[in-house]
Amino acid sequence: MAELHTGVGRQRGDLPWPRPRRIATLSVHTSPLHQPGTGDAGGMNVYILEVARRLAEANVEVEIFTRATSGDLPPVVEMAPGVHVRHVTSGPLEGLTKEELPGQLCAFTAGVLRAEAARPPGHYDLIHSHYWLSGQVGWLAKERWGVPLVHTAHTLAKVKNAQLAAGDRPEPKARVIGEEQVVAEADRLVANTRVEARDLLDRYDADPDRVAVVEPGVDLDRFRPAGGDRDVARLAARRRLGLPTRGYVVAFIGRIQPLKAPDVLIRAVAALRDRDPAIADELTVVICGGPSGTGLDRPTALIELAASLGVADRVRFLPPQTGDNLPALYRAADLVAVPSYNESFGLVALEAQACGTPVLAAAVGGLVTAVRDGVSGVLIDGHDPVDWAGMLAKLLPDQLRRAALSRGAERHAGNFSWHRTVSGLLTVYGEAIAEHRGRLAARLAGDPALSCSW
Fold first, then answer.
1. What is the pTM of this model?
2. How far apart are CA 289 and CA 37, in angstroms?
3. How distant, in Å, are the alpha carbons of 259, 307, 318 from that of 301?
4. Nearest CA among 1, 3, 2, 6 for reference residue 423
5. What is the tens place of the pLDDT at every residue in 178-198?
6. Which helix (H) or strand (E) holds 325?
7. Residue 325 backbone phi and psi in degrees, to 5
8. Which of 91, 129, 290, 384 is the most exposed place for a label (fewest CB within 10 A)?
């Protein structure tokens, strides 16, 4: 793979890259105000929220454009000092799926352009779009405003289609084409990991000079061990959430859909009962989240699966957790399972490790970066429930190994912070702005070779 940079600390000679004053962040299909863990709200929501807050703390104003989904929402919400969420009316407020949103991109783009037209010229210095739908809007806005476009895909259709769960629907050709267009037009492409960067280069023929790796972070103030004796803290967290205080707890936290593969964990419990019933009878699996994506087709599928496999007594279902309950759930678990078929990064894995809880994860996508195999958790090749059951049988009774993984998890997560992420993004933003200004200067100087577009 061509050489890529990490986006952290790069400078032109002795001078730092130019810093934007204001950024237009585009998030068409989901709002950072939505609760992660259900519908289309997930790690991307957390990413946009945390990055925006810390950019504002660094004196960079952020305006987030997202689609209005309720008549009760005001046109603009101040999410934090220096961060505003603007709700753009585009299509019906309710009832549209993510797959139906391409038909509303024209209306959404018009709303974004009108908002900018009401400002003085040059109000925004840069656009950062998230997911391919937003990238399509950003592509048009950057041409209209004369500013650079930075794009983060978060997930890629070609990657998802190559790693589909059984029975899951492939991403449509229209999305693949849309992603290819955004990759070709963006001034910078931010990849969450080197694995994602490689996918951009190999599957989308991205220009390596425009691809930067900037890893997401974790809120290390919110997600941390409770302090004191870990066993005492684990029991306190279980009591808080109404979970069994005796035995083992393994938690799945995320949206309920085939891509996230919570069924693998339930099937693993059934396989564990066949392999080692004594361990299985001491185990409670917590499935925390709400239906999403193709999981909306059968929202009770996991409940039915657990019953059909005879392990309904071992599985507890919880809705998405808010506030301090989410860190408490991480601390309550002996292990957190992330059996996804694909993850661009895997923020759940990072949050769990920051709380000192080891992670059992599929060795796919960004999870090979988010989890340090054998140090902060264990990576499993494939999704065979028998393999997952075997690892549960090894790890759950081995208290010494789990304690070592717990210490390693906390150390590993400590390498990731949102401040580090924002530092990397500011470098990428600065590169994009500097190159954009250079093209403008070349155009004014009449040098067609230097002023050409990408």
1. 0.90
2. 5
3. 14, 10, 15
4. 6
5. 999 999 999 999 999 999 999
6. helix 325-332
7. -70, -30
8. 384
Tens digits of residue pLDDT in 220-270: 999 999 888 888 999 999 999 999 999 999 999 998 989 999 999 999 999
Statement: residue 144 has pLDDT above 80: yes
pLDDT digits (tens, 9 = 90+) for 194-226: 999 999 999 999 999 999 999 999 999 999 998
Q: Mention every residue, 6+ apart, whose C-beta is less than 8 A from residue 292.
A: 38, 39, 40, 42, 255, 256, 257
**Separation of alpha carbons 55 and 22, rounded Å:** 10
How far apart (Å, rounded) are the C-alpha atoms in residues 346 and 75?
32
Give the pLDDT score at 14: 42
- Give the whole-angstrom CA distance, residue 182 versus residue 131: 10
Phi-psi region of 286 (alpha: psi -120 to 50; beta: other; left: phi over 0): beta
CA pair distance 139, 109, nearest whole angstrom: 10
Residue 246's CB is within 10 A of a number of other CB atoms, namely: 9
**Residue 25: what are its φ and ψ, rounded to 5°?**
-100, 130
Question: Of 346, 80, 359, whose CA–CA distance to 216 is shortest?
Answer: 346
Q: CA 349, CA 377: separation in Å to the nearest integer?
A: 9
Look at phi and psi of residue 245 and say left if phi exceeds 0, alpha if psi is from -120 to 50, else beta: alpha
